[in-house]
């Protein structure tokens, strides 16, 4: 009974509206926004455009922030057969866009774990071949711009284990772990043990205080959480590789919590108090 009541308390704390703040401790909301890439990634690398943000120079900027509320994506109504772009890839799904790196398609036909460096090389090769600036204004240029945006999103998604898992569950198994209509994680009760563990971490962050000691405690928490994330990614890969969809769903939910903790810890500053986890 005590465990059940505590789990209920944990769930209430984790789902409270982000507009509610504690008067005792300031709460920092870690809500993240990530706009869907519309411009070619290579355009962001051009030094001749000084008005671009410095952070856009680095490839990691494409997926430094994660969105946990993505909706089912469509790869554009125009397929590679109808797009008037020479050498356009097969856009049936994100895996078919990168045939050199992912020739066997999604798990369980191929491992969940991806060679991100190889994926990156193929991504740059595709964008160099299909760059919209190679075409004059007209239907082909417009199609190339749309195709470039699709390739950007596919690369961003497949490069990130959490986004990759959410994509696989949604697109190939009809499970949206971000949905609130019963088709996602809410279709099954959240693990009480996970809820209590997350609540304990949240309380520990709220109680670190200030000063150098607080900074050292946060550093330790970051290392501990990195291990949690690493373990979740490994368990997620094993579930997908075995075709265990329900197991993958559960691990995806767990990973989403720990990634949220990681984001909060990364943004923590002395005097901030606690963080509110977005799941």
From TrEMBL:
One of its GO terms (molecular function) is ATPase activator activity. Gene3D superfamilies: DnaJ domain, HscB, C-terminal domain. Pfam families: HSCB_C. Keywords: Chaperone. SUPFAM superfamilies: Chaperone J-domain, HSC20 (HSCB), C-terminal oligomerisation domain. One of its GO terms (cellular component) is mitochondrion. InterPro entries: DnaJ_domain (IPR001623), HscB (IPR004640), HscB_C_sf (IPR036386), HscB_oligo_C (IPR009073), J_dom_sf (IPR036869). One of its GO terms (biological process) is protein complex oligomerization. PROSITE patterns: DNAJ_2. Residues 93-171 form the J domain. Belongs to the HscB family. This is DnaJ domain protein (AFU_orthologue AFUA_8G04610). It comes from Emericella nidulans (strain FGSC A4 / ATCC 38163 / CBS 112.46 / NRRL 194 / M139).
């Amino acid at each position: 009974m005590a465990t059940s009541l505590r789990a209920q308390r944990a769930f209430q704390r984790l789902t409270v509206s982000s507009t509610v703040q504690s008067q005792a401790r300031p709460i920092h909301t870690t809500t993240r926004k990530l706009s869907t890439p519309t411009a070619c990634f290579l355009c962001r690398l051009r030094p001749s455009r000084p008005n671009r943000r410095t952070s856009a120079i680095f490839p990691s900027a494409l997926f430094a922030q994660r969105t946990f509320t993505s909706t089912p994506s469509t790869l554009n109504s125009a397929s590679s057969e109808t797009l008037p772009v020479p050498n356009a890839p097969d856009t049936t799904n994100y895996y078919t866009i990168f045939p050199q790196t992912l020739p066997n398609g999604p798990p369980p036909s191929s491992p969940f774990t991806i060679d991100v460096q190889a994926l990156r090389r193929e991504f740059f090769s595709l964008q160099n071949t299909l760059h919209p600036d190679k075409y004059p204004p007209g239907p082909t240029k417009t199609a190339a711009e749309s195709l470039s945006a699709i390739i950007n999103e596919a690369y961003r998604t497949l490069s990130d284990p959490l986004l990759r898992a959410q994509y696989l569950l949604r697109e190939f198994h009809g499970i949206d772990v971000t949905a609130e209509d019963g088709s996602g994680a809410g279709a099954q009760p959240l693990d009480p043990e996970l809820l209590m563990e997350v609540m304990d971490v949240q309380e520990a962050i709220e109680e670190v205080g200030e000063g150098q000691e607080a900074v050292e405690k946060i550093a330790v928490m970051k290392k501990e959480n990195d291990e949690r994330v690493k373990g979740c990614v490994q368990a997620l890969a094993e579930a997908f590789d075995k075709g265990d969809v329900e197991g993958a769903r559960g691990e995806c939910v767990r990973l989403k919590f720990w990634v949220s903790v990681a984001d909060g810890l990364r943004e923590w500053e002395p005097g901030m108090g606690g963080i509110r986890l977005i799941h």
